[in-house]
Amino acid sequence: MRRVPETKISVPELPADLVHRPGLRRELDRAADVALLCAPAGYGKTTLLADWVNVPNDSDTAWVRIDRDDDDPRRLWSAVLTATARCPSVPTSSRLRRGPDDAGWDLSAAGSPEFLTELCDALAALPGPLRLVLDDIHEVTHAATLGGIRSFLRDRPRPITVVLAGRLDPPLGLQRLRPEGRLTELRGDRLRFDREEAEALLSRLHLPLTDAQLDRLHRQTDGWPAGLRLAAAALAETSDGEAFLADFSGDERSVADYLVGEVLSALPRETVEFLQATSVSDTVSLGLAGALSGREDAGRVLAELERRSGLVRPVGRNRGVWRVQPLINTYLHAELNRSSPHRIAGLHATAARWWLDWGRPAKALEYAARSEDPPLLATVVRQVAVPLLVAGDLAPLRRALRASGEAIVSADPWLSVVAALVAYAGGDAPAAHAAARHVHLRWPADAPAALAVLRAAGEELGALPPATVGADPGAALGFDDAGIDELVPAEPAWEALVESARCVGRLRRGTDPLLVHRTAEGARLEARDAGFDLLYLQGTATAAMAAAACGDLRAARETAAQGVDFASVRGWQTSPWALECSAMLAFGMLLMAEPEDAGRLAADGLTHAERTVPPLRFALAAIQGAALADNGDRAAAIAALRRARIALGDSAAGRVEVAVAATAEFESAIRLGQYAAARTVQCWLDERLGETAESLLMKARSELAAGRNHHARATLRRVLDGQVPVVLPSTLVQALLQETAVAVYADDRFAAWKALQSAVELAEPRDLFRPFAHAGSEVRELLAQRYGSLEVADTFGGRALAVGARPGGLESVLSRCELVVLSLLSSLQSLDEIAADLTVSVNTVKSHVRSIYSKLGVSSRRNAVLAAHEQGLVLGVDADGSGDLAGAHATSLPGFATSTRFIQHG
User: Running DSSP on this structure, what letter comes out for residue 319?
Assistant: First the structure.
């Protein structure tokens, strides 16, 4: 016999970058009979066994690396004998010690029953256990050689553990050992590196990756050790690792060469063709594999590939879906795309139809978009778009539309309407507008009923502009039209979409808000139960706005909060309906005199509203500006509100949002003495809404500041008598509080008490604390008299009194000169005496006094001093309103001496 090469029977050297796998080594330690390592090339079978063998234990190991020449019983068993002879535990007296050179071994009969009997007897006589490793067992294919190994496995003495490693399942009848627990198996799913092992390998190769890059590479290779090594080698030579990983696949040159040479070349041609046909899908079910390959025995082929090669593995426990090794799959897909692009398009179309028939809309869309078959894509979209839309599963629709390209989408009305709805629901108003243009340009005169219904739903929801009668034949369809329900497809998703859109339209057109609220509440709860999550969010926004329109601000806040939380959980913060909920909740917090929370909610909404419709951005900006004003930062509020008005331009905006912005900016301008700016915003409000209760309140505020109390009272009477429309829920409360102040100025205590009581009664059911926070000193004095005791502190009036102290201090409202004059108003000096004390003219003092009254919203010296007391600037205020400023005003007011000089030179 030819001498056995040393390298054939030596345990391979371990690589320097070895990743130890103690868990798998322990499993091999527990193998008392036969162990099988079966996986494709590059899964580290040999390395794992070499690492296992190198760990000291009580067993010797005989190692044989099999090649094609060993498919001969004489060569194979000669190598086994040689490897056994090298084991230290084999005594010198044993025949095995002399290996194949012992004259007693008849190698011409190697593998025969007689030969194997002698071998087993010799092994049984050994003093200790022995492990026999047969590496690359897949190289053995000859029936005689396989028969000899099969007989040896059956008859060998039990202290002998046999370990088989190969790329294919050897036909040795190992399945008989499974039921008896005598077979230990490590296949590709166990041999693949997990994420931690992949990280350890790349670290040993001095290739640090970010967590995201590591996750991507591990996913791309499916933990295939050889794939990780090949990728690492290529990564080391590139300057742009991120770009490399983005394009990395089995088609990368070094990977492709390895796959072809080590994996695919060993497979039958028909098996490679089967894998190539199924390569259009990352995972395949039995049915899809059959449809793509045209083979009725697809299940058998997949099972055989798993059992014999490990190239595929089942996904999940039911073994109904299979995953081909990703790098092999991507290589075969790239090769198919190069050799037969038309065939690959046809395979995508086949997959689309199969997924559609099996009720998997997202998958059907994915493959229809790849099929380069516009009619097929339109067919799939018609069937699956609405169910995906109402569920909020926008990503498959977005990907399919993007993959199809603008030319295909813009040419098909179905695709354009869906594109507009998807873009709008995702918060991309410009994209929705662009798609809507295509709808208008391509709208057919004989549009199908379902398409007309879908367009009408998009119009009601705001995704598309209303159709123009005559310009779009057959498009001007209203949901309140007679017979509309007969046109709606009889499917739950369609019916739910139409009902939600109908609620939005009715609320916008001024239908009874109580009816709309009841309908919207029912629709959103049904949507939730049906799993129509996006419709649930949309219905929540509608229900919150309808509740506010009914005057039920508590319900509006609670409902809006549910919408904000739900959108946050689903990651839908950019949706216009999520932003509507944010705006409604922020507005509710503003009315409750919680400007910090209101401002935070509005600011957070604005961060997600970059591409939403202008009116919605304006609404959030208006609430944010009003919150700034309520927090005392009036200069920042004016700047923010002015920017919001400019950004809105000529775009339409809601009446409530316009009124909120205008009133906040007006009040801030008045308090800062910017009277021209106040007049500008008052004119803007009149231009937008016409004469409203809010604009009349502005007028009354100006009249009070000018001391024309009689005119102010007449203006307020028009508001309170309902002669003009009221926009904001807090306006009538504000009007009553101003009426209270006017009555105090007129020394009509009865009227003042009556107006204040009416304000409290009107505000309490709605938690309208904000008007009381803005109330003047004279109103607050009455509140303190009525609700200042502990017994009533927990009533609405008591809480209104508690929120009334304006943040920011008078220093943020009054100039230094006005603060000096205010400090002297708390004394008993007349204005002439104050002027003499400051060495300025009495007219200068009177000008400052008028400005102080205007900014503080008061009309008397006493109430100006009370306002100063509320801000902590006055140590004490007597019953007659007199008092002294802290530190005789000089130590408390910054820049007093400088301010005096300003007055003197004024």
Answer: -
CA pair distance 591, 812, nearest whole angstrom: 23
Q: Which of 539, 531, 541, 547 is nearest to 581 (CA)?
A: 541
Q: Does residue 469 surpass a pLDDT of 70?
A: no
The pLDDT assigned to 875 comes to: 33
pLDDT tens readout for residues 741-795: 899 888 898 999 999 999 999 999 999 999 998 888 788 888 888 887 666 678 8
Residue 491: helix, strand or coil by DSSP?
A: coil
Q: 856-873 pLDDT, tens per residue? A: 767 778 777 776 765 555
The CA angle 782-699-826, to the nearest 5 degrees, is: 45
Question: CA nearest 736: which of 717, 723, 708?
Answer: 717
pTM, two decimal places: 0.70
**Cα-atom radius of gyration of the chain, to the nearest Å?**
42
Q: How far apart are CA 673 and CA 482, in angstroms?
A: 57
Tokens of 685: 């409000």
pLDDT bin (cut points 50, 70, 90) of residue 439 is very high
Whole-number pLDDT of residue 807: 47
> CA dihedral defined by 763, 766, 767, 772, rounded to 10 degrees?
-30
**Residue 875 backbone dihedrals phi, psi, to 5 degrees:** -70, -40
Output the six-digit token pair for 81.
Answer: 């004998």
Q: Could you give the strand order of the β-sheet that contains 321-324, starting from the edge strand earlier in sequence?
A: 283-285, 321-324, 312-315
Kindly list the strands in the beta sheet with 60-65, ordered across the sheet, starting from the edge strand earlier in the chain.
60-65, 130-135, 160-166, 34-38, 183-187
What burial class does residue 183 get, using C-beta atoms within 10 Å of its C-beta: 0-12 exposed, 13-18 middle, 19+ buried?
middle
- Dist. CA 105–CA 121, nearest whole Å: 13
Please tell me the distance from the alpha carbon of residue 156 to that of residue 139, in angstroms, as a whole number: 22
**Counting Cβ atoms within 10 Å, is residue 278 exposed (0-12), middle (13-18) or buried (19+)?**
buried
839 to 422, 739, 835, 848, 891: CA distances (angstroms):
71, 38, 6, 14, 20
Let me know: does 43 contact 188? Beta carbons within 8 Å: yes
- Residues 685 and 694 sit within 8 Å (Cβ to Cβ): yes
- Gap between the Cα atoms of 100 and 81, Å rounded: 6
- Whether the CB-CB separation of 773 and 785 falls below 8 Å is answered with no
DSSP-derived secondary structure for 693-723: HHHHHHHHHHHHHTT-HHHHHHHHHHHHTT-
On whether the CB atoms of residues 77 and 109 are closer than 8 A, the answer is no
The yes-or-no verdict on residue 883 having pLDDT over 70 is no
* Three-class DSSP labels, 842-862: HHHHHHHHHHHHHHHCCCCHH
Residue 242: Cβ within 10 Å count? 12
Please report, for residues 169, 312, 704, 743, the alpha-carbon distance to residue 859 in angstroms, rounded to integers and kept in the order given: 98, 86, 7, 12
Is the pLDDT score of 618 beyond 90?
Answer: yes
Q: CA–CA separation, 220 vs 218, rounded Å?
A: 6
Give the C-alpha separation, 334 to 342, whole Å.
13
Q: What is the DSSP letter of 54?
A: H
Tell me the average pLDDT of the chain. 87
pLDDT of residue 468: 52
Question: Which residues, other chains included, contact 796 with Cβ-Cβ below 8 Å and sequence gap of 6+?
Answer: 760, 763, 764
CA 211 centroid distance within chain = 19
Angstrom distance (rounded) from CA 162 to CA 144: 19
Query: Is the four-CA dihedral 705, 706, 707, 709 of positive or negative sign?
Result: negative
Q: Report the distance separating Cα 265 and Cα 156, nearest Å.
A: 35
Q: What is the pLDDT of residues 204-224, one digit of tens each?
A: 988 888 999 999 999 999 999
